[in-house]
Amino acid sequence: MHTLEQIKDRIAAAFPGVPLEVIPNASPANQASLLLPPGRAREIAKFLRDEPELRFDYASNVTGVDWPEKTVKEKVKVKKIIDGVEKEAEELAERKTPAFLEAVYHLYSMALGQGPLIIRLRTGNRTDRVALPSLTPVWRSCEFQEREIFDLFGIEFEGHPDLRRILMWDNFADHPMRKDYVPAEPEEAQP
Amino acid sequence: MIAAPPEPQAPGLGDFANHDLLEVSMGPHHPSTHGVFRMNVVLDGERVVKLTPVFGYLHRNHEKIAEKNSYLASIPYTDRLDYICSMTNNWAYVLSVEKLAGLMVAERAEYIRVIVAELTRLFNHACLAGFLLQDMGALGTPLMYAFREREKILDLFESLSGSRMMCNYMRFGGCRCDLPAGWREQAAKVAADFVFFLDQFEALLSENEILRARSEGVGVLPRGLAVNAGVTGPGLRASGVNYDVRKVDRYGIYDRFKFRVPLGERGDVFDRYMVRILEMRESVKILDQALRDIPAGAIMDPKVKLRNLRPKPGEAYGRIESPKGELGFYLISDGGPTPWRYRVRPPSLINLTVLEDMCLGHTIADVVIILGSIDIVLGEVDR
């Protein structure tokens, strides 16, 4: 059983210079995840699947998450001159988190019985840079789930064999699972 | 002069004009699709050359609704996912919330959960075998035998939870109500009788020549493809992969019971039928042990607060071995009263990934039994 840090080191050894980031998880589930750069994601996924000591041959759960822009209020220590003396004071500062869409993959190894390894891919923003590489060529189980993310979140998976809407109808325009989705007014029934 | 029949070619839309290919829309209203599921099948004579599944007729955006509800309010809604097996849906969801919020579960409730989940597995597999035989043309009888047994278990569920199918029974940290008087003895009797039913069912069917001729060698799913395509549950094990979440994760208290995981060899329709029959026998063994060992005590952990549950920011993925495969829930909390992200990993949908691979080259009548052997419920496929 490998820890996330060990897996990260293995990837870093096989792909020198690739930025990898561990996303911590504060909940008691203690399932931290690994953020991969989209450009190299498919190579890394193949490595995770085929490396004899990792063998993550089974992509169980694939899903999207929508992260719109949020304003976070933080306490920041600022040096201020109060009554002629320099002192440290706390101030509330507002910081905006960038908006993006995220694809999350839960990987397990059926061969070695380990997991879950959680990997994440992030888009550039929520509007025009929403393409990510499809991992369906690596794991067939992503096929319908990536179609579902495309349908409900609007992430475009490059290299997916059959990227169409799966649950909504073909000429539906919006992406219902996004946080800012407003359903259209129901059409009035014809008498 | 009679023209020679065309050579079989690899399927592709460009070839369709050359032969007499027929495109059939099978479903959404077709008795063999087990709900509102559609397949666009391209046929060369009776042989399938292309099959495209079409989803979404029962889509109600379950996940969006759950993201607007409190954690507690989603429990009854999970009953409607796989509406045959509401108990296992409840369990997968409460297990994920317990992981997310770090809650403990009362000892007695763990036993009750195992008991109701294994009872669910019994009648799900029995009904699936009945439906499969119905699809093969054994009209009525095997299905009614299975439904007779199912009714006994649904009576148990009704006396326990108040509802036959939409049980809404589990809660974070335990179960909603304790076993009524005499329930345990009644359940033990149902489990003991189930073995006789299985013997009778198998005597009629497992060696039946028609069943074997129809199902052996049909819809073969190779082991490597099954793993890569994320097939789980009896369909995976029929292809010879030893992977059962009850054994791998040992969630709940499954490490306390002795049971085996039946495996198939060829991965055809008959193996998928047979693995389910053998799994039912193992479930009866688990039931015997759980009903014998269940301790007295509280059914809810006293520290758990059901209402206004606000887990700390973070995420959790919990999964169980539902009768249909790996049922998982992925939850992200932002610290608020509703989940920021609520995702169901539906085994029925993902097991359908390989439907086309299994059907190519077989006849349209075999498509019906191959689909029947996968075991789908559309409430879960479309969500």
How would you summarize the topology of this molecule?
The complex is a heterodimer of chains A (191) and B (383).
Chain A lengths: L3 H11 L6 E3 L9 E3 L5 H10 L7 E10 L2 E13 L2 E13 L2 E10 L4 E9 L8 E3 L8 H11 L3 E3 L33
Parallel strand pairs in A: 2-7, 8-9
Antiparallel strand pairs in A: 1-2, 3-6, 4-5, 6-7
Chain B lengths: L20 E6 L11 E7 L2 E8 L7 H7 L6 H4 L7 H16 L5 H30 L4 H21 L8 E2 L2 E2 L7 H23 L3 H7 L7 H6 L5 H5 L6 H4 L20 H25 L20 E9 L2 E9 L7 E5 L1 H5 L3 H5 L4 H11 L3 H5 L1
Antiparallel strand pairs in B: 1-2, 2-3, 4-5, 6-7, 7-8
Helix pairs in contact in B: 3-4, 4-5, 4-11, 4-14, 5-6, 6-11
What would your notes on this structure say?
The complex is a heterodimer of chains A (191) and B (383). Chain A is an alpha/beta fold and 191 residues long. Chain A has helices at residues 4-14, 41-50, 142-152, and strands spanning 21-23, 33-35, 58-67, 70-82, 85-97, 100-109, 114-122, 131-133, 156-158. In chain A, the strands form 3 sheets. A 5-stranded mixed beta sheet of chain A has the order 1-2-7-6-3, covered by helices on one side. The longest helix of chain A has 11 residues, at 4-14. In chain B, strands 1-2-3 form a 3-stranded antiparallel beta sheet. In chain B, strands 6-7-8 form a 3-stranded antiparallel beta sheet. Chain B has helices spanning 62-68, 75-78, 86-101, 107-136, 141-161, 183-205, 209-215, 223-228, 234-238, 245-248, 269-293, 347-351, 355-359, 364-374, 378-382, and strands spanning 21-26, 38-44, 47-54, 170-171, 174-175, 314-322, 325-333, 341-345. In chain B, a hairpin with a 2-residue loop joins strand 2 and strand 3. In chain B, helix 4 runs antiparallel to helix 5 and helix 5 packs antiparallel against helix 6. The mean pLDDT of chain B is 88. Chain B has 383 residues and is an alpha+beta fold. Chain B has 2 domains: 13-54, no CATH class; 62-382, Cytochrome-c3 Hydrogenase, chain B (Orthogonal Bundle), CATH 1.10.645.10. Chain B has 15 helices and 8 strands. The chains are: A alpha/beta (191), B alpha+beta (383). The A-B interface holds A 25-29, 31, 57-61, 63, 65, 104, 106, 110, 113, 116, 118, 139-141, 143-145, 152, 165-169, 176-177, 181 and B 55-56, 59, 61, 63-64, 99-102, 225, 227-232, 241, 243, 248, 311-319, 326, 328, 330, 332-333, 340-341, 343, 345, 349-350, 352-354, 382-383.
